[in-house]
Amino acid sequence: MFQANELVVYPAQGVGRVERVERQVIGGASTEFYIVRILTNNVTLMVPVTNAVNVGLRSVCSPEKAHGILAALKDRSDFTGYTGQNWNRRYREYSEKLKSGDLADVAYVLKELMLIGRDKELSFGERRLLEQAMNLVTLELAFALDRDKDEVTAVIHEAFEDVLAKEGDE
Fold first, then answer.
1. Which of 36, 60, 74, 91 is the most exposed place for a label (fewest CB within 10 A)?
2. Other Cβ atoms closer than 10 A to 112
3. Is the pLDDT of residue 83 over 80?
4. What CATH code is carried by the domain that includes residue 22?
5. pTM score > 0.85 for this model?
6. Taking Cα atoms as reference points, which of 69, 82, 153 lies closest to residue 115?
7. Burial track 113-134 (b if 16+ CB lie within 10 A, e otherwise)
8. What is the pLDDT of residues 26-81, one digit of tens each?
9. Do 42 and 77 lie in a common domain?
10. Contact criterion met (CB below 8 Å) for 87 and 125
């Protein structure tokens, strides 16, 4: 069970803070809810305590996992690129990964789109997914590593310097 003021991650929304746990009667049944405020956009979510795990509400990752994610972003061995896949299929796959709430899946989308961007100009939809993945990853890593979000963003950009340098050459 999460406590008030605890940082949590809600899939596709990102890091939030549990403001309180409150009981409400809905449809004649008394239910406890986590009241979670998402830090990036100030949206408030009501997540039933009994269903929190099923919807993917989880604690911010550990510093060890955060370092593992940064290492995975630098590793190019699993990059398959977009060969043989059309944009619609990739978009659905990436959207599902962003909604999964698994930080490794979100980081995978970030890495794929950064690397695809070195070979071709990203479409509007791809850029939106890239921005969403970048925001989700950087904010969680910033809290996990107790660093500023801009610092984490710089570390991620550094991991893709070869990609970003190529984009700048064109």
1. 74
2. 23
3. no
4. 2.40.10.170
5. yes
6. 82
7. bbbbbeeeeeeeebeebbebbb
8. 889 999 999 999 999 999 999 999 999 999 999 999 999 999 999 999 988 777 76
9. no
10. yes
Together in a domain, 25 and 104: no
My answer on whether 35 and 89 are in the same domain is no
Average pLDDT over residues 11-28: 94
Q: Which residue type is seen at 70?
A: L
User: Are the C-beta atoms of 113 and 121 separated by less than 8 Å?
Assistant: no
Per-residue confidence (pLDDT) for residue 56, from 0 to 100: 93
The 3-class secondary structure across the chain, one letter per residue, is CCCCCCEEEECCCEEEEEEEEEEEEECCEEEEEEEEEECCCCCEEEEEHHHCCCCCCEECCCHHHHHHHHHHHHCCCCCCCCCCCCHHHHHHHHHHHHHHCCHHHHHHHHHHHHHHHHHCCCCHHHHHHHHHHHHHHHHHHHHHHCCCHHHHHHHHHHHCHHHHHHHHHC
For 102-140, the pLDDT digits (tens) are 999 999 999 999 998 888 888 899 999 999 999 999 999
